[in-house]
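FORM 7B: Structural annotation worksheet

SECTION A. Query
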Amino acid sequence: MLTTASTLTPAAGGRGDQPTQSEPDGGGPAAPSARTLLLNASMEPLCIVSLHRAVVLVMSGKATVVETDGRLLHSERVSLPLPVVLSLTRYVHVPARRPVPPTRRTVLQRDNHRCAYCGAGADTVDHVHPRSRGGRHEWANVVAACTRCNHRKADRLLHEIGWELPFTPRAPRWSVAFGSAAVRAEPLWSPYLAA
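SECTION B. Predicted structure
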């Protein structure tokens, strides 16, 4: 039984310390995804691990592959689906962690680059309760906004201009474990990183 990714041997012409990976259609080796999302047994996101660590977790029976992109890692005796999302087989207690502070990039990602006020494409961040009036820079007080709505709202409160938010802003689940690393998340991670 293999215990580390370095014992996976490549096809002819490959490097001896890298696993061989093939495309779903049977094509030749391709560059492996360098990161894998690791979930707790409760399906909550824990962290992002390297491909090497992901293979070790699967081969040792500590994790199972939840999502793959269809490619395979090959050794002389074993084929393993390329792990894009893993789940631990046993629950791990994680002490309470504080979310990282919001940034322009992470707020736009949380709100899918859509203006919280009109639904158009957003490229700025607005403080719902303006900082000039005592509002804080925290997840519950920031939303993505288009330039037009941000200028129209200015430093006023929503009730003063008759506006309402269609959702309650809050820290996304991924902000606790990953911070801005989730901005570059794989598409298959989306269902597990949803707020």
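SECTION C. Observations
The first helix runs from residue 51 to 59. Residues 12 and 83 are 23 Å apart (CA to CA).

SECTION D. Sign-off
Analyst initials: ____
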